[in-house]
Amino acid sequence: MADTVKGPASYFPSIEKKYGRPIAEWKDLIRSSPLTKHMELVSWLKAEHGLGHGHANALVAHTLAEAGGK
Question: Which of 3, 46, 53, 60 is surrounded by the most beta carbons within 10 Å?
Fold first, then answer.
């Protein structure tokens, strides 16, 4: 039986479907942003790229966790 994806990654299929970009592309955008704080990045994704709060939050949380919380 396959494990169910939990946490921020559980949003990834719906993010790709709704916004038409692969998750890797969103993560590259986040990493290349001069912003570094979680909520700054969430606000930026919402304002500049039209993401909903939950989707933006999931992407930022997952990307920052991969970078060791930087």
Answer: 60
